[in-house]
Write a structure and sequence with these properties.
Layout: H1 7-18, H2 35-47, E1 51-58, E2 61-68, E3 83-88, E4 105-106, E5 109-111, H3 115-134, E6 143-148, H4 156-162, E7 169-172, E8 180-184, E9 186-195, H5 210-230, E10 241-249, E11 259-268, H6 274-291, E12 296-305, E13 308-309, H7 315-328, E14 334-337, H8 343-348, E15 352-355, E16 360-361, E17 369-371, H9 372-390
Parallel strand pairs: 3-6, 3-7, 7-15, 8-14
Antiparallel strand pairs: 1-2, 2-6, 4-5, 5-17, 8-13, 9-11, 9-12, 10-11, 16-17
Helix pairs in contact: 1-3, 3-9, 5-6, 7-9
């Protein structure tokens, strides 16, 4: 039998969270940001008797940390392993949504921006903490809830709490349809610039067309993309991929383009590095230069996020899978996912991490919803996993 959770509290908390505009202001300057929702979360957690800390590395970009202290005193991490429950509070924009902050409950679903990505998960995390408190459960190690800002842009929230809050394990509660996610892809953003020579369009003998040179680059990238898809595949996340995302070049219709710029996104699988994927593109440019000494191009990486993978035998995986058996009465399903998550930051910091979240649909879409029963079930899974992992 699993620990009882307060389903009414979880539903009401989720509705209140969805009704707050917490659109990431970096994505949309008109967005509400994390301030209001962080204050609500802090109030709820204090009502449960938890120690709460507001973390604000930049003005108004607020994350919330709440700790259920394990045995061993308020100054330490307790006598058992410490665990973080991680959920982000920011959302993407609401363009095209008729009533984005309704929090309406219909047919067992909670509707609105962020309900699925990922305020349902946050309500589950809070509900799990409440279940342990209501049940009088005393954990050996600390249990920390991290409600973090800015995951939808640069993960300022999780990055700022990692050094502040040392834990042994983490459960990132991004939505997974209650499946256990052991890996996800990363990405690398690169900029390729080809350089020509500006000249009047009538003077072909003087001009060198940077756009034409970029066409050669695109041809070779298309070949690379096909090779990537048909090559090595990760058993959980599939093959790597590449796409030409943004392209600009030239200054006028009757002028040879002096420069042409292409921005590339390369999705990476566990085991790949930014240095490796930049080298793939650099090799293409070097080869094109060898074929034509007038061809001049550079490549630079301007942002990257590592892929994530956890050892299936890690203790945190075992605790979550045991909890899935207990709460859902079925075998856990192991999966990988393609979007990047904060799990990679935690894993890179040496925290053994796994991902599990509720059922729903519509992340970043005009219609978004989360299944309320799965939110309640997730709260039970998180509470059971904490008892097993923290001791």
């Amino acid at each position: 039998m699993s620990i009882p959770v307060d389903s009414d509290f979880i539903r009401d908390t989720l509705v209140r969270l969805v009704q707050i505009d917490s659109v990431n202001p970096t994505l949309d300057p008109a967005g509400g940001g994390e301030g209001e929702i962080a204050r609500l979360i802090g109030d709820i957690l204090r009502t449960l008797g938890l120690a709460v800390e507001m973390v604000e590395p930049e003005a108004s970009r607020i994350s919330v940390l709440a700790t259920l202290q394990g045995r061993g005193g308020s100054g330490g991490r307790g006598r058992g392993r410490s665990l973080m429950l991680n959920a982000h509070v920011d959302t993407v924009g609401v363009a095209g949504m008729a009533d984005p902050f309704s929090g309406a409950v219909r047919d067992g679903r909670v509707l609105g921006r962020g309900s699925y990505d990922m305020k349902g998960s946050l309500a589950s995390c809070i509900g799990a903490m409440k279940a342990l408190i209501d049940g009088g459960v005393e954990l050996a190690g600390n249990l920390v809830l991290a409600a973090v800002a800015d995951e939808e842009y640069s993960s300022l929230g999780t990055a700022s709490v990692i050094d502040r809050c040392k834990v042994d394990g983490a459960i990132v509660t991004e939505p997974t349809q209650l499946q256990v996610c052991l890996a996800h892809k990363g990405y690398t953003w690169m900029r390729v610039t080809t350089r020509g020579r500006a000249a009047h369009g009538s003077r072909f003998e003087e001009g060198v067309d940077a756009n034409m040179h970029m066409g050669r680059v695109l041809r070779e990238l298309d070949r690379l993309e096909r090779d990537l898809r048909s090559g090595s595949r990760h058993p959980l996340v599939g093959p790597p991929s590449l796409h030409a995302a943004l392209l600009k070049g030239g200054s006028g219709l009757s002028t040879y383009a002096a420069t042409s710029e292409l921005q590339i996104e390369r999705r990476t699988i566990p085991g790949e590095t930014p240095e490796q994927v930049e080298r793939e593109v650099r090799n293409i440019l070097d080869r094109l230069h060898d074929e034509d000494d007038e061809f001049t191009a550079t490549v630079e990486t301007f942002f990257s996020r590592d892929p994530f993978e956890v050892d299936p035998g890690a203790a945190i995986v075992g605790s979550v899978e045991k909890a899935v058996w207990t709460v859902l009465d079925r075998a856990p399903v192991r999966v990988g996912d393609t979007p990047w998550m904060d799990a990679a930051l935690l894993a890179a910091a040496g925290v053994e991490t796994v991902v599990i979240g509720p059922v729903g649909a519509g992340a970043h879409a005009p219609e978004e919803w989360v299944d309320l029963e799965s939110v309640v079930q997730l709260a039970g899974i998180l509470a059971e996993a904490a008892m097993d992992y923290c001791g």
